[in-house]
Write a structure and sequence with these properties.
globular; 5-stranded parallel sheet; about 210 residues; Rossmann fold; alpha/beta
Length: about 210
Amino acid sequence: MAPSYSGAVSYKVDNSTPKSRTSTEELLTKSLREHLQTVQSLLETKLGDIQRAGDLICSTLTKGNKILICGNGGSAADAQHIAAELVGRYEQHRRSWPAIALTTDTSALTALSNDFGYAEVFARQVTGLGVSGDLLIAISTSGQSANVLKAAEKAREVGCQVIGMTGETQEPLAALCDVCVAVPSKRTARVQEAHITIGHLWCEMVDQLNPGG
């Protein structure tokens, strides 16, 4: 038997005024201008830091060592993106380089978080995977992520060099790094956009190591 229904059905009518095309265009224009301003600031003030960090990456790889990369949320996605470009390729057909994103093994992430606490989730992996001469790229838009800080501390203990990528607020992470590229913006979205741009610049440098290999 079909169910019976009683009572009137009420519908809520949204009488709010929809956003105009002009207001949406203003929003998008503002964000794109912020993006361009952030990248321009990188060019004007951070190019030296980007190059020094890229030189560290290149020297680490050519010496036969590997790159470890960590971060949370969007920074985790950047870690995986950069690792994929190094292990696979960026633009040039060249050899595969050793790089590991510490954000991809769900069994390790959940076990370590459960057994040691989330603050140790990257540091414990650095302990097991990192050796002297390796390099950690530690990504934190705030410069304050506890698990990224602990990973950087552990990396230094085992003899790894450390590159940091942060936003305008770079401490305390910067103090643990050999080079820290601090994107001159307080807005997380703009910082993350700049971070992957920086990652691509490093990949361009790596491509030049052995472009036809």
